[in-house]
Write a structure and sequence with these properties.
Distance between the termini: 44 Å
Order of helices and strands: EHEEEEEEHEEHHHHH
Radius of gyration: 21 Å
Strand order of the largest sheet: 1-6-5-8-3
Helix content: 40-55%
Strand content: 15-25%
Number of strands: 9
Largest sheet: 5 strands, mixed
Structural class: alpha+beta
Number of helices: 7
């Protein structure tokens, strides 16, 4: 559910440690929870790669309604498509916890594209992964219930030690907050029933002994 790319991160880690580039070419920048790394419909001047932390990627409609596309973690690149296509930001990217990033100037990114075939391969792999993940998510939405996707979302928050608002959860699932509350209630009731069945089963085994 949270996309990561360890190979891309390793590439940038090694590049950063080489110190064979201009002082303004690459920097490490930290964003606090709630800060925006990238803005929809605005012109950027850098490409970013997440070193640590989790972000949410979302579109904001004219009526201010949000739709969360995905969650990005370490090793994921941001702003590459906008640079290559010479367009404004396609979406917003916001930090969910403390996020540390490598920030590459456009001129440095272009110089790497001109001479480093390894970067080309990493970008092609990243593009392919995005297509696969988009198709996979669409399939999940068709094959599984909202409750199943909600369960996955809740487990992701526990694992990453982050907290999403109900608005964010609803925006990711593509439902209203009212529908989310109903699904959360059903999920909680299902967990209680599962716990009760587990206790009953344990008591039955104890009585048999």
């Amino acid at each position: 559910m949270i996309r990561t790319n360890e190979t891309f991160l390793h590439y940038l880690d090694e590049l950063y440690l080489q110190h064979t580039y201009p002082s303004d070419a690459i920097a490490i920048v930290t964003f606090a929870p709630g800060d925006y790394l990238f803005l929809q419909n605005e012109k950027a001047s850098h490409v970013l790669l997440i070193k640590q932390g989790v972000t949410k990627v979302f579109f904001e409609e004219e009526n201010e309604k949000e739709y969360i596309v995905e969650f990005l973690g370490k090793g994921e690149i941001i702003g590459d498509i906008e640079y290559i296509r010479k367009i404004e930001g396609l979406c917003n990217v916001q930090a969910l916890d403390v996020v540390e990033t490598y920030v590459l100037s456009y001129s440095f990114f272009q110089s790497l594209l001109n001479k480093d075939s390894a970067l080309y391969e990493l970008l092609l792999d990243a593009f392919a992964s995005r297509i696969v993940n988009t198709a996979r998510r669409a399939s999940y939405q068709q094959l599984y219930t909202i409750e199943y996707s909600l369960h996955q979302l809740v487990e992701m928050q526990k694992k990453q030690a982050i907290t999403l608002s109900k608005e964010d959860m609803a925006a990711y699932l593509g439902i209203s907050v009212r529908s989310l509350n109903r699904s959360l209630k059903q999920l909680k009731e299902g967990e209680v029933m599962k716990s009760e069945r587990s206790v009953d089963s344990s008591n039955t085994k104890t009585n048999i002994k």
